[in-house]
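Hi there, hope your week has been kind to you so far. Please have a think about how the structure follows from the sequence. I've dropped the whole record in just underneath, so have a look:

_____
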Amino acid sequence: MNSEINRDAMQLTPKINDVLTTLHMCGCGPCDDVLLYIYKTLVEIKTRSESDWKVDLLKDRLESGDMALQIALYYLDSANLLQHGGSIGGSWLTEKGYVFLEKLEAVLPELTE
């Protein structure tokens, strides 16, 4: 966790501020941890989609009752980063989701310093 980026919205880099704005996050609190959680989730969804669902890293998390993951999926869906059919657990990235994931990957070094 990089304590420099999540304490004062005025100190955020433009790239991180852009990511936070997309998610309608203010930037206070442990936003770097939240962004890392979202990054991990989006990468797992991308991996599952690109493997024709042969690799489903979310399955165990969902089946274990990870309510934070459920909330994150609903939130990412409402931000139009995900789309789903019959179940939120079967979501896939939208075009906007792929673009957002690229933005997150660009700020990842700042989040993990």
Observations:
- Residues 9-111 form one domain.
- The longest strand covers residues 82-83.
- The first helix runs from residue 14 to 22.
- Residues 1-10 have pLDDT under 50 and may be disordered.
